[in-house]
Amino acid sequence: MLSRIWQVFHSTVAAFFGVQTDDNRKKDFQTGSPLPYIAMGIVLAVVLVASLMFLVGQVLS
User: Where would you find the membrane-spanning parts of this chain (predicted)?
Assistant: First the structure.
């Protein structure tokens, strides 16, 4: 279970930065459901926006 979460996290972060390899992308599409990748993408996007808001708030104060 933990290795599956790590694999989804790794693939999502790689896709965020545009460095996903073709082999990993093909493996991701063979897993069946895209829902774990969508959920992880939403979580990482929220974390990114929240951390940027925090960082800007710290710089401006």
Answer: 37-60
CB 40 within 8 A of CB 10: no
pTM, whole model, 2 decimals? 0.79
Alpha helices in the chain (DSSP H): 2-17, 22-29, 35-60
What is the CB neighbour count within 10 angstroms for residue 1? 5
Which pair of structure tokens corresponds to residue 47? 């974390």
- Is the torsion defined by CA of 46, 48, 54, 60 positive or negative? negative
